[in-house]
Structures are given as structure tokens and as C-alpha cells.
Amino acid sequence: MPTNKLKIAILFGGRSAEHEVSVQSAKNVAAALDKDKYDLLLVGIDREGGWHFFADQQIFTQATLDPGVIKKGEGIAFLPTGKLPKVLLYEQGKYLPSPDVVFPVLHGPYGEDGAVQGFLKMLNLPVVGADVLGSAVGMDKEIMKRLLKEAGLPLGKFIVIKEGDHENISWFQVAKELGSPVFIKPANLGSSVGVSKVENEQQFQEALLLAFSYDLKVIVEEFIPGREIECAVLGNEQPRASLPGEIIPQRDFYSYEAKYLDQQGAVLKVPAELPDEVVKKVQTLAVKTFLTLQCNGMGRVDFFLKDSGEVLINEINTIPGFTQISMYPKLWEVSGLSYSALLDELIRLALERFSRLQQLQTKYN
Asked: Most CB within 10 Å of its CB: which of 51, 210, 245, 294?
């Protein structure tokens, strides 16, 4: 029987080090989507990059316990065969209806960096969140910071070290330029994976080794004492910002474990206790960051608030977490938008942008 419900394809898992986080986020998204409005097409991506179809949300629980279970799903392929792609369960030789919208609940490389967005764009499918460009520059911390600096937006000092160059840079040089301690991170990874706080030569060498195991270049950032503030952004050409929230790490810094594994790893204050003028400053900078980096749909912008009242941009996350302890949905909920309504709006924004793109000329007359 025909249905007016939209078919939403949820992509989860992926090849990045944030595979497990993606599964947790997708589980919450799938549970919160209004089943009176949407039919779900669940597509798990295993650690090797294989795509698999699942008919039941039980896969999220199974994959949380054993990530390898994703490989046991039915093989699925999206084929660019014309205006709408064909969706093939190739082991059965069976076709499924094409989705109306794709929601990539993927974190890190191969999901948040523009790679899957480019593939879906070639398939002519609407995608929730940033397009290829916004995703790519949002993921690469070096390019992101250079663009923000060029736009005159406030951020801390940093240097970039590329693979092969690290032997020519000493801890003494880094400490002289940025002070001590510093944070060393892979340039193209999120969720605090591969991040180290460094205060001496031995830690410096160990941190570089760790960061280079995840990426071909790393970013070294000055330590900025102050409060960690986050602000959610929602929209396309005219985005709006949520009330800000505050992260109070209970560990040395806001690590991967504190974000996703240890519910006591950080205290989340939503909304943050801030003067009105600071709230406005954070919201203004969040929207400017979002627009400068050519983002659309959604983004979470992270800041440092110094004791002097100065606000510095840390980074943007173009596919923020949707786990039970994630800030992005919490920030919108306290700003008056429920989890379910937030997902409705993200899907609407994806369809709106897709419709506008479809009106562009593709022929030269």
C-alpha cells in the first residue's frame, strides 16, 4: 500500500576510530525518529568499508557489544543509475526503494570529512548536514583554523607538523612558540581520539607517535586556561544558534573516554551559567564560524572562555554526537526544540537545500 512517509536511510559505523560512537549515535537517532512520519533504511558500514543492510534496530545493541556483527548483515549497494539510485541487496538480487533522505550518522574520516557526502551527491540524494566542502574543511583542523583566522575570528595559537617533518621540530621550539603545556592532535579526527596533553620532551615524542598513527599531519595547540563552552548551530543560509552549554571535565581534559564511555567523565551544564553579553557573543561567533566554513544543516562549535571574558574558537564538529550524553541535542532541547523535532528540522533542511541545488543549471545554453 502506498505511504506518504519519507524513507530515511541512516548510515552508521564506518572505517574511523569513532566507529562505536557512531553506532551509539545512530541508535538514538533511529529511536527518536517519528515512525508515523518516517520509514527507516538502516545501513551499517563495517570497519573495512563494506555496506550492510539491517531490517531491525536490534543491530545497534548487537553492534555495541560486538562491532564485527555489522559484517554479518546483508550486502547492500547504492547504484548511480539515473535520477534516483537503485538500492540493491546483491546477495539476494533484490532491489529496495530508494531513500528520500540520507542521514549519515558517521563520525570522523570516511563519514564526516566529505567522502560519503561526495558519494551521496553523485547518487543525487539529499543528505542531512554539511555538504562536501563544509564537511572537508570542518574535519581538517589546519584548514579550518586558517580559514577562521583569515576571516578575523578569534582563536588560539597553533602550529602544524606534517609526517616526515617532525624530526626537524623539537619540544624546545614548540614550547618557545606556544608555551607549555600544549595539546597535540591528529589534524583529521574528532572526539579527542589520539589527543595528548604535553609538558616535556618525552611526552612530546610519545604524543607525536600516537597522533601520527591516526593521520599524516598533526596540529599542536597552545593550552588555553578557561571554561569549555559549546554552542549548537542549525540552519542553511540563515542559521540560528542554541543557548550555550558548558563542559566541566572530571579528568585532566575532555578525553574520548570522558565524552562517550564514562558518564562521570564530565559534568554538562546545559545551559551554561553565563552573563547575557557572553551568551550573545558565543552565539554570534558560532554562527559566523558555521558560515565561514561553508556549513549547512547542523554543527556544534566549541569555545574557550578565558577569565578575562575573551572567547576563543576551538573547532567545529559537522556531525556532532547524538548519544545519550551528547551536547548537541541537549543544547537544542534546552533551547526549546525536542530531540524528535530537531531531527524533523534537520531532514527538512536537507530537503530544502537539495531542492535549491536541483534548480541549478547543469547544461550550457
From this structure: 245
Q: Which residues are paired to 68 by β-bridges?
A: none
C-alpha cell at 196: 595528548
d(CA 14, CA 194): 18
For residue range 254-277, what is the model confidence (pLDDT) as tens digits?
Answer: 555 555 555 566 789 999 999 999
d(CA 179, CA 172): 10
Please spell the DSSP secondary structure of 281-350, one letter per residue.
HHHHHHHHHHHHTT--EEEEEEEEE-TTS-EEEEEEESS---STT-HHHHHHHHTT--HHHHHHHHHHHH
Measured at the CA of 254, the angle between CA 337 and CA 103, to 5 degrees, comes to 40
Q: What are the Cα distances from residue 282, in Å, to 74, 157, 243?
A: 45, 19, 9
pTM reported for the whole predicted model: 0.92
Q: What is the pLDDT of residues 15-43, one digit of tens each?
A: 988 899 899 999 999 999 999 999 999 99
Domains of the chain and CATH, by start: 6-127 (3.40.50.20), 137-141+148-153+226-356 (3.30.470.20), 158-222 (3.30.1490.20)
Q: Catalytic positions, please?
A: 18, 191, 260, 300, 302, 315, 317, 321
Give dist(CA 295, CA 31) in Å, integer. Answer: 26
Please name the residue that has the C-alpha cell 618525552.
202
Residue 166 has pLDDT above 90, yes or no: no
pLDDT grade for 313, boundaries at 50, 70 and 90: very high
